[in-house]
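Example: Succinate dehydrogenase hydrophobic membrane anchor subunit.
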Amino acid sequence: MTTTIEAPRSPLRPVGKRGVNWEKWGWIYMRASGVVLVVLIFGHLFFNLMVGNGVSAIDFAFVGGKLSNPFWQWWDVLMLWLALIHGGNGMRTLINDYATQAISRGILKSAMLGAVVVLIVLGTLVVFTFDPCPPAQPAELLPSFCPVS
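Written out as structure tokens, the predicted fold is:
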């Protein structure tokens, strides 16, 4: 008596197809971005929690001062971009694994891509346009460290 095992679900990309192997590049990106993210995240945590007065020093003035420095702006933007693309790529992999219909897979991947793009744009705008002391505001609405004009 012989038992036949069904073939696994066919891959999304046929074996003989030419072109860019996005799965391979996605896999490589996940490994590389993971290593860089570990460095960025632990650097972020070390600076915020260990340097100076520690966690008790984190307030609006600390964040305002940090986001006024171009080094920390780019550090935070790089961390934001890598983390969101890393997470989006992981979600794309899960969608490919569990969404069985092509239409549902397309809708889910489009929604995930849209969410990642919106969050990247909004996060980048916040980091680069943050001003803790906006001009022409009443003095009672401004933080205490802002010069009164």
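The chain has a mean pLDDT of 87.
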